[in-house]
Amino acid sequence: MSRQGSRDTAPEVAVRRLLHAAGLRYRVNVPVPGMPRRTIDIAFTKAKVAIFLDGCFWHGCPEHATHPKANAEWWRKKLDRNMSRDTETTEHLAASGWTVLRFWEHESAVDVARTITTSLPPKRAPSLRLPSTADSTEDSEPDNQS
Questions:
Q1: Residues 6+ apart with CB under 8 A from 25
Q2: Residue 1 half-sphere exposure toward CB, CA atoms < 13 A
Q3: Cα–Cα distance for residue pair 64/39, rounded to 1 Å
Q4: DSSP 39-58
Q5: Are 51 and 101 in contact (CB under 8 A)?
Q6: In the chain, where are the structural domains located?
Q7: Which architecture does CATH list for 10-127?
């Protein structure tokens, strides 16, 4: 597990690229205030908005979580501790006046970035021009008006 990457994951990088392209500036891997061994994936420190992009396996996604068969009891306890640590971190930050947003790794980076920008205070959030997640084939067809 020490080799398991815990920062700069593909979903994190994809969301960060979209936020940066939209003109937003943020900090990455910021220690949780009062909990120095825990980090916020993406933080807007002045606005006090904490973003977490959780992996489906490690954080118990209700749609995609799997449970190893080998050493099953140890893994169940480990993953349960991860989920309770997530809850504790969220509650701690909320009690400190932070807005906490949690997303799953399987969620669309565009949708995540859009949700983040709408959650920022109005003066911080730019008018975001993100690509659409829906197919735009209907809009690209020419009108046949005769």
A1: none
A2: 5
A3: 24
A4: EEEEEETTTTEEEEEE-HHH
A5: yes
A6: 10-127
A7: 3-Layer(aba) Sandwich (3.40)
CB 46 within 8 A of CB 58: no
Amino acid at 121: P
Residues 6+ apart with CB under 8 A from 54: 61, 86, 102, 103, 104, 105
pLDDT in the model for residue 124: 56
CA distance 70 to 55: 20
Per-residue pLDDT at 135 = 42
Contacts of 45 by beta carbon, 8 Å cutoff, 6+ apart: 27, 30
Residue 123 to residue 11: CA distance in whole angstroms: 26
For residue 20, give both structure tokens: 């940066």
For residue 145, what pLDDT is reported?
45
Does the model's pTM come out above 0.90?
A: no
Bridge partners of residue 27, in order along the sequence: 43
**Which residues in the chain show pLDDT less than 50?**
1-2, 135-146
Do the bridges between strand 49-54 and strand 99-104 make them parallel or antiparallel, or are there none, so unpaired?
parallel
Strand, coil or helix: 71: coil
